[in-house]
Amino acid sequence: GNLLLNIPVRGDGTIDDKEEAIVDQIAEWMSRNGEAIYGTRPWRVFGEGPTKPPSGMLNEQDAKPFTAEDVRFTRKSGTLYAIFLDWPEGEVVIRSLAQTRVERVDLLGGPELQFTQSSEGMRMTLPPPADGGFVPAIRIRGSV
Prior knowledge:
- Helix content is 12%, strand content 34%.
- The protein is mostly beta strands.
């Protein structure tokens, strides 16, 4: 997909400090989590979670913030990626993985994660963000 950034540019082509900080954070996130984006394809489920964006156009003011229960999935070469839309505090359950055999889970740019599976889904706890990062992405290996 395409990433469209709405960064206002001054007449001389420069951007202010706030926009530069946002672009730097996006670049840092992409360097850590880019494998969950570049060269990936959709998985059988696009995502899960309670937050539903408002329908229609030009309605961003009606949108509710995403939560740590909101997850989006991509896949590449037998690997599944789950991208959380907020950093989970405490245990999180990925319900779409209830019927999938998971062998290993890694936080991109971080450690291997311990997990359990049941008919409810895959449960795990992510470490707190080390650098105040945006949102985490995990690599899931198994029969995905």
